[in-house]
Structure formats: C-alpha cells, structure tokens
Amino acid sequence: MVTEPELTPDGHFVVINGRRWRATDPEVPPEQAARLRSLLMAARRDVGAALRAQDAGAERDARARVHLAKTALGERGTPWWEQTPGQRRRRWQDGLDALTPPSAS
To answer: Could you give the percent of the chain with pLDDT greater than 90?
Structure first.
C-alpha cells in the first residue's frame, strides 16, 4: 500500500523522513504530471547507468534531464506558488517540450 507523503499546512512542501522537499505543483494536469514523472524516473535510471559505466558525459546529460523534469514539476526553480497561472503552465509545457523527443510527441 502506497501512502501519500505528509504535506506542510501551506501545501508547499512534503515531509519525508523529517525532511522537507518542495511539493509538485498541484496545477500540473494529471496526464502531464504522469509524463513528467516518467521522464524524471528514466533520467534517474540513466544517471545510475552512467555512474556504473563511469561515463561523465552521459551522467551530465542525465542529471540535466533530472533537473529539467523537476523544474517542470515545480520542485525546483521559482516556487510555483509565486508564479502566475500562465507562468506555471509555460513551465511544465516547456519542460515537456525539452524532454520529449520530436518523434515521441
């Protein structure tokens, strides 16, 4: 059974093992959020593969994709609660555009 992490009262952060992490922007539509999470997990797997292969270039590329996905989800960069609805929409759409190969769109 998967339980949802504890949220701070303002909803801006999740608390995991006593540590606060910025929460995903709740306004990212479910389909786009799921796609971004899938891309994030693929990039994290690629970081691990690059580390095992000791491939610094592949590691840099994979870490850059992790950063793009987390930024698109609102977990990095300007806090989503400080952005306008238009800025929030552009943030996640730009992330999807940057992370999705042209043939996969």
So the answer is: 89
- Establish if 76 belongs to a structural domain: yes
Rounded CA separation 80/16 (Å): 20
Domain housing 59: 26-104
**Domain-located, residue 9:** no
Nearby residues of 80 by Cβ (< 8 Å), 6 or more positions away: 25, 27, 74, 88, 91
Domain tally, the chain = 1
Instruction: Look at residues 28, 57, 61 and name the one whose alpha carbon lies nearest to residue 43.
Output: 61
For the question of whether the overall pTM of this predicted structure is more than 0.85, the answer is yes
Going by the DSSP 8-state scheme, the letter that residue 65 receives in this structure is H
Contact call for residues 86 and 77 (beta carbons, < 8 A): no
